[in-house]
């Protein structure tokens, strides 16, 4: 097994006043030659957005963009849907930018901050027709078991949102002293484990809140919880 540890305090950080952004990989004005990507995982941003603030209309193309609100209300609008789409904590949003999309994202609350993860995955198909989807996922369905949020559009995995890449995005909420064994899709895949909250152990490495571990060259690994923990797993092909 090959691993790489990314501690929470080693991430890139930008304070824009209305936006507090932590970057797991090189993004905007933050660049680290050792943190450009993990396989086809290109971006994992951990953002806190002030009430009524957000990102004005901007373009994307040929990228799979996944947004996971952790708390608060996200409002999204793009040139495929003129109306604002509301995305709540517990829901996940996917957007295949393909040939090109313009969109806006704002905090839909007047008085509460919005906390979210935004993930960019390099697609395996270029210049596809842009598409948008979102879904709600029951938190009870990930209590001490894996809940798949996102999978390949070419894979028949019921209940998950779809992207143009042979990837899996999953969550699991482990109770204290519980363990779970994760099995990878193939030897050409790797998993980026983000410990959202809590304390876990993988391969004798302890991960605290917002610590991450990249794992490759293995068929699987065991996650042990030292306290109640919420975990995000992003499995992607290696480049």
UniProtKB/TrEMBL annotation:
> Which sites bind Fe cation?
58, 60, 103, 105
CDD domains found in the cross-reference section: cupin_Yhhw_N
Q: Which cofactor does it need?
A: Fe cation
**What would be an example GO MF term here?**
metal ion binding
Matching Gene3D superfamilies, A to Z? Jelly Rolls
Any keyword tRNA processing? no
Domain annotation Pirin N-terminal: ranges = 11-121
Q: Which InterPro entries match?
A: Pirin (IPR012093), Pirin_N_dom (IPR003829), Quercetinase_C (IPR041602), RmlC-like_jellyroll (IPR014710), RmlC_Cupin_sf (IPR011051)
- What are the UniProt keywords, alphabetically? Iron, Metal-binding
- Name all Quercetin 2,3-dioxygenase C-terminal cupin domain ranges: 150-236
Q: From the UniProt annotation, give the residues forming the signal peptide.
A: none
Instruction: Report if keyword Iron is assigned.
Output: yes
Can you name this protein? Pirin family protein
Specify the species: Oceanihabitans sediminis
